[in-house]
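Archive entry. Fields below.
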Amino acid sequence: MKDNVLIKVENLKKHYSGGKVKALDGVNAEIKKGEVIVVIGPSGSGKSTFLRSLNLLELPTDGKITFDGEDITAAKVNINRHRQKMGMVFQHFNLFPNMTILRNMTIAPMKLLGKKKEEAEAQAMALLNRVGLADRCNAYPSQLSGGQKQRIAIVRSLCMSPEVMLFDEPTSALDPEMVGEVLDVMRELARDGMTMVVVTHEMGFAKEVGSRVIFMDEGRIIEEGTPDEIFRDPKSDRLKSFLMKVL
Amino acid sequence: MMFDVIGQWLNEQRELFILNFIDESRWKLLLTGLGNTLLITLFATLIGIFLGIIVAAVRTTYDKNGEAMAFHKSIGYYVLKIANVLCKLYLTVMRGTPVVVQLLIAYFIIFASSDNGIMVAIFAFGVNSGAYVAEILRGGIMSIDNGQFEAGRSLGFNYLQTMIYIVIPQAIKTALPSLLNEFIALLKETSVAGYVGLVDITKAGAIIRGRTFSAFMPLIAVALVYLILVTLLTWAVSKIERRLRKSER
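PREDICTED_STRUCTURE:
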């Protein structure tokens, strides 16, 4: 059972301005292999900070994060090695504007995994085919729509063959008609058994794809459970009032 | 007659020209001066680039990666912290005092035992320019959206790889025009190099003026030389800028 846990978060805290602002205030969570964890909550609840802490883009003030059995918050940890196995997708895509789509996808596997160009490109093309964007492989990011950019950002992360994918509000910057195509890719990824942590406002996605939903507010996890438990039978008043507003 | 007046004036100018530039081969003095001006500018530019890169690297690394280094309790953090303070001090002093004063301090205090004015001038202008180059490079790097940096780091690139593969190629495009303009400004700034007993183009003009007691010809000649040099360089910069814009996506 213990082997199944991919990421373990213990008493995670993130304080700003000497403790006056508590973005995270003692978060505990376990993410098992193959789970799709959807994190919901009002803005400012700390859900993005929580997600960004998992690969230490956000440095916690206190607490412990164990990934693959290693404490990545310890001193002298080679975080770069761990990050290779934690793909991340950002709200604003963050594709490299000066590189073609193919280069965006091959640079990390080539430089970090020592893959040959042909090998990296073959892998990238296979992934592009999966998301239906193979014909755009030589385009530059500025020539793509938001939905296309985000699909590229997802497969760029997949090129590193990560063990877990972190999604930081992946559809929040998209025009409404483009949200679907990105969620489709994520849905397919979940079906393939990828471990995912998704911060999102897409409640439909949470209900349908999430294996567990975490509701956060004021830097704490208020409630967590299966989508059924969270959406059909919310216990806390804060979750109830949040769901009233978003559903 | 009108033509007589013009003819007489032209004749006077011709004589003044001969007096200022041809007699005693005074043009050679201007040529030597030009050579020294270019020499000082070129080597000061090289020193400026070298120092600028180091200072910009320290400052941006401290800003962008210092927190993470402290988090992972790397000893490098303390070295970096001290280096950052030193760099800030350097920037404050270099940008807070006139370059002439720096030049005089270099010549009369730091290198008081040396009378090689050109070396001292190269040193002083180079060290001064390094401060401006550093801030231009830092500005270029900081102007790149932090999301680019985070995307690189999230893929597993370490700090240096992220800078080299992702951030710097984009930052260069932003910083290059300002950087080239800094070197054009440096060329003009070296006109005060005559303070330390060397003959640059401005000083050459002054020497001629002192000997011939005529101000117009030598000063205008000096001004024209600067103008031509700056115009050429500015034209080259605008060419490079256009090229950069074309490659922009």
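CURATOR_NOTE: Chain B has one domain: 30-247.
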